[in-house]
Amino acid sequence: MWTKLLITLISASAVHGQQQQHQQQPQPDPAAVESCDLFKRSVLERRPANPKEFPSAARLGYRNMAENKTKWFCGGTLITNRLVLTAGHCLYTDIGPVNIVRLGELEFENDKDDADPEDFGVLRTILHPDYKHPLLYNDIALIRIDRAVTFNVYKHPACLPYDDGESHESFIAIGWGQQKLAGRPSNKLLKVILEGYGKRCLTDLESNSELPNGYNASTQLCIGSPDSKDTCNGDSGGPVLIYDNKHPCMYNVMGITSSGISCDTPNIPSVYTRVHYYMDWLKQEIAKVK
Questions:
Q1: Residue 139 a catalytic site member
Q2: What's the structural domain count of the chain?
Q3: Has 209 been annotated as catalytic?
Q4: 113 flagged as catalytic
Q5: Domain range for residue 137?
Q6: Which of 28, 53, 173, 224 has the largest CB neighbor count within 10 A?
Q7: Catalytic residue among 186, 225, 236, 259, which?
């Protein structure tokens, strides 16, 4: 088992073999789709994200000020003009502390893409009080950036979830992580459709040093694919999303990429932090910033 501290999106399509009752994901209003860049459902393989498609996407890194070099190692999700949601284990790295957050990016090392990258300093990191490194339970944290984000089509927050995510049949995962295990991180923001595996992680995932009590069905989501499609190293802290049915150009962040066994083994689901479980804590921390 490994944390997805360097994690990417290898992709998902068909329905897994278990007979479970799922909530059919509502389709956005067609007229509304014309005015925004929502992920097209007909695309099931791993693909680069479109410009302005995921304006809440964040990438976290450590910038060595003396050498003026930055190492990027985790993802995140903008949820207010000051707060980025991520995984707790992203605050524990050998690279260095998170001290930089990039928003509005699409493809790194390309200044001709349709993007509006902007780097923010880190004012404070807020770890969930029940997270105990190196365990991956309660694997959730917030990063308070050093100034308010000016919202535009490239930088805009995702919505928090309305439900616990258990009944949804599909999710969208995004990130700049590796495209295969031991591969190189992607310069391009990638997207993939993954499927909800219900409580299958209770039987499919064995306990290990990071999850000694096994899968926690209350605080974690079990998500995977029947094909060789997944998140991978470098995507840690990034989101799994669903469409916001009330606001067609918006997404709800349902989960946070946390850990997995491999990057692309069919029908071996990965573990994601269930954001809805932590709504009370999130609301308290958001209120403090306001």
A1: yes
A2: 1
A3: no
A4: no
A5: 57-156
A6: 173
A7: 236
